[in-house]
Design brief:
Order of helices and strands: EEHEEE
Distance between the termini: 40 Å
Helix content: under 10%
Largest sheet: 5 strands, mixed
Radius of gyration: 12 Å
Structural class: mainly beta
Strand order of the largest sheet: 2-1-5-3-4
Strand content: 25-35%
Length: about 80
């Protein structure tokens, strides 16, 4: 199934070189049917613990949330500051 992925801040370095477009633009990823958000993280090779938050279609979700075709997934790193 195809989903749209948008990476934020330091996670942009995990954007596939074949994705084309600018680093802040979304790109298409192909996953097996029934995959969850954590499958996107694994597909992109993002090390465990770097994704602090995720959203699907604009709603905050857990990494174990199942995906549907054409979902829009946003991945966020931990925020810095104090």
């Amino acid at each position: 199934m195809e989903i749209q992925v948008r990476l934020y801040a330091s996670l942009r370095q995990y954007r596939p070189p074949t994705a084309g477009g600018l680093p802040h633009h979304p790109f298409i990823a192909n996953l097996p049917a029934g995959s969850a958000v954590d499958a996107v993280v694994a597909l992109l090779g993002i090390p465990e613990g770097l994704v602090n938050a995720a959203a699907v279609n604009g709603e905050a979700v857990e990494l174990t949330t199942p995906l549907q075709p054409d979902d829009q997934v946003s991945l966020f790193p931990a925020a810095a500051g104090g």
